[in-house]
Amino acid sequence: MFEVFGISSQALFGQLLIGLINGSFYALLSLGLAVIFGMLNIINFTHGAQYMLGAFTAFFLLQYAGLGYWWAIIIAPLIVGVSGVILERLFLQWLYKLDHLYGLLLTFGLALIFEGTFRNFFGSSGLPYSVPPALQGGRNLGFMFLPNYRAWVVVFSLAVCLTTWFVIERTKLGSYLRAATENPTLVRAFGINVPRMITLTYGFGVALAALAGVMAAPIYNVSPQMGADLIIVVFAVVVIGGMGSIMGAIVTGFGLGIIEGLTKVFFPEASNTVIFIVMAIVLLIRPAGLFGRGT
Amino acid sequence: MESVADPKFAHATRSHSEAIAFVIMAGAFIIAPFLAYPVFLMKVLCFALFACAFNLLIGYVGLLSFGHALFFGWGAYLAAHLAKVGAISLPFWLGKWHWIVIPLPPLPPELAILGGMLFAALLGLIVGALAIRRQGIYFAMITLALAQMMYFFAIQAPFTHGEDGIQAVPRGRLFGFIDLADQTNMYVTVLVIFLGSFLLIYRIVNSPFGEVLKAIRENEPRAISLGYKTERYKLVAFVLSATFAGLAGATKALVFQLASLTDVYWTMSGEVILMTLVGGMGTLFGPVAGAFFVLTLENYLTTIGQWVFVVQGAIFVVCVLLFRRGIIGELAKLLRIKL
Fold first, then answer.
1. Which residues of B touch A98 (CB under 8 A)?
2. Do A101 and B140 make contact, defined as CB atoms within 8 angstroms?
3. pTM, whole model, 2 decimals?
4. What residues make up the domain containing A32?
5. C-alpha to C-alpha distance for B164 and B149, rounded to whole angstroms
6. What is the ipTM for the molecules in this complex?
7. Which of A43, A112, A114 sits opposite B312 (nearest CB)?
8. For the segment B112-169, what is each residue's pLDDT rounded down to a tens digit?
């Protein structure tokens, strides 16, 4: 252990790690928002609630079906993704021709419904969810103690983000997706079922949020409002990065997580607000966002 | 934005229908204290003003602010602080933190409200200048994020007293001789503030300035091509909206003698959006009807706890899918008049 600027290495790297973990969630969530916005032209305010639903699904699976973390990380995103597909078919599909604002308002209403319902049944205090046995404990790296689970979260979410990037930017399916984002009518004329693609895209974006929720469950408690304040930070992340670029969303997410972690070490009073301050500065210097195209 | 009133028949009956509706509304609020609980009515008036301020942006410029609780809540905080304590301490950094203290006595209600309003206007100028740099959906996200930032400030700033809020704010004597502790005096004051602001908003919306705002709502590129500096118009509209929202918050702080974190949290922004949506975006009387509807509903639902949010969410969904004109918008369409 050593000291940097009068701060013990354990504190510094510990906060950096927490920053990276928060960054993973920012990246996963803003990635989902960007993918959904690209196809549906809707900012999914329900995203925070769906992150919460992912965590709760993991909790239920353990509680009532005896299925542990490794099952949950596969099943919970599937279940929440399917629920997203249903939401899209029931509600969102009627809004595509309207002003973007209505999509935001509708998904905001859905978020209120989900969060209100869960708060009603589970109160405001969190429910514990333990770290899977295989990832318990940690290792001493000399300059800090690294809990295994946290390392796993960072590595796994990075892998998921990069896979998503690869699929969208480098595969045939991704090229259909990007084409449909640019000009859905033309892509339909080529015989591709664009409405189905839109539905599945929403399901996929939502599943990403649920996946983040499952990963968050052992770190934070599972609680009904775990996503409510998070989604606002993610909005700021999206404003900073701009939604035009997948890689942009990933880089911005992780980067802002790290900045937030560092702020916790050096200027803890501002740790809640630093991302919003960064957003204000970016708006002044580069109004279109760091990776944005136009407005 | 979907235009609510059909312009074909709007002009012929405009002044009449709106004037008659205004007289009905004013009359109803004058009679109402004899029929209903005055504190509830004052709450309706404050929120109606808040919703009208919000509607000035969404209804007439097409800008969705998701952070209007910021102006409402901070207007309330500042008015409450000025009325109760007065002295303002500002921190500044000079090697280490210092406090500069502006010694003020507790201010009379009219100055406290004015202070809250001006502070909201200042915040509106800063937030507006940042937010109008992006359009559409980003605008909503930026205002929401900045409001959340100021919510965290409100938690940390000592003068807001965190979770407790500023309690037991004295109502004081208006202009030195009207005792606002008296419920009737307070009600009349709130009513005068509301009706005055309502007429002012009506004037703004129907002025040449307001016409430009509507042009921006309908087609911003075209307004730009006609030579209007739309950013300036949007900023002025934003500051005006923030000022009225601050006025509503400041008045609310005196009525309930309380300014708290609830007023600056995003749920409050959601609530004012809901009121305007239910009443009818872009209609003059919609926000008032919406405020009355939502608050009455909440009044009946207080016993069911967290289900209130579920009900609010359901109303959002129903309104967006089936009922985008809102109560007053549908009424205006039914009667073929402008409201």
1. 2, 324
2. yes
3. 0.91
4. 9-285
5. 19
6. 0.90
7. A112
8. 999 999 999 999 999 999 999 888 888 999 999 999 999 999 998 888 888 888 998 8
